[in-house]
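User: Fold this; tokens only.

Assistant: Input:
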Amino acid sequence: MSQSVAFFDLCSRHPDPGNRHFVIADKMAAVHQNIQRILLAADRMAAPVLSTTCLGIQRGHPAMSVCAAVVAQAAVRPGIALITPESSSEEVRRALACRQIRLQRPCGVSPDEAVATRSFDVFFANPHTATIIRGLGPRRWLVFGAGFEYCLLSAAEGLRALDLRVSVLRDAFIPGARTTPETFRTTLERFAALGVEIIDSGDVLGCGAVP
């Protein structure tokens, strides 16, 4: 293994109705098994996992809360931190000792509002994102999840701006609700221009070894 890795999970999971666990969202059904395999590989490798949660899918469950879920999950599985836009520098420092870090973004907005306010971009919406990533040191980032043209692309742009190697896992993402063949093609072109690899998760995780 020539470089340590980290994982960036964009909106593939959300709290269960009991606010005690994060579960893979129904919208990820097509890649559910692959995401499970990736998360298990991250556990085996003891690799950092940053994640965002798309709270838009929870509008029918107003009691669901990322904060409550993180507190409940951390109580039974230490090593999980929540960083909100309002977190202090001390909270950020403590979070870096955790292997799993949830990055909170504004929630409760419509898709149109998310685009207009750029709340889909965790680097823009949570000012601690770049600090957390720098604090984890030089790594190869494996990116997957939801919102190909928005969440995934903006995460890759932020990581590349920090001069980090980025690979998008093609068998573990889904397109956005507004994806068309044209937007998909232009997004692929943008990834190529950024120097981002589009690969299968098995290419790097098949035997538990990462090149």
